[in-house]
Amino acid sequence: MFTVQALYVFLVNGGNLEQTANDLSLSMSGLRYRIQKIETLIGQELRNPIVNYQLF
Q: Which residues form the PucR C-terminal helix-turn-helix domain (predicted)?
């Protein structure tokens, strides 16, 4: 569940890792781990604006 929340906050923040980490009270390494896990699960890169739009 927390991975879904991390994805949502990441998308709301326009992919800004620092703001997302602050909003979720996570370390940067913890957030990067979650983002990498999400990318592995969906088989897409979250830095792709088309993928971001579709997920949002």
A: 4-49
For residue 17, what is the domain's CATH number?
Answer: 1.10.10.2840
What's this model's pTM, rounded to 2 decimal places? 0.87
Phi-psi domain of 6 (left: phi exceeds 0; alpha: psi -120 through 50; beta: other): alpha
Residue range of the domain that includes 21? 2-55
Q: What does the DSSP 8-state code read for residue 56? A: -
pLDDT at 34 over 90: yes
Domain count, the chain: 1
Whether 38 has a pLDDT exceeding 80, the answer reads: yes
Residue 53's φ and ψ, nearest 5 degrees, are: -60, -45
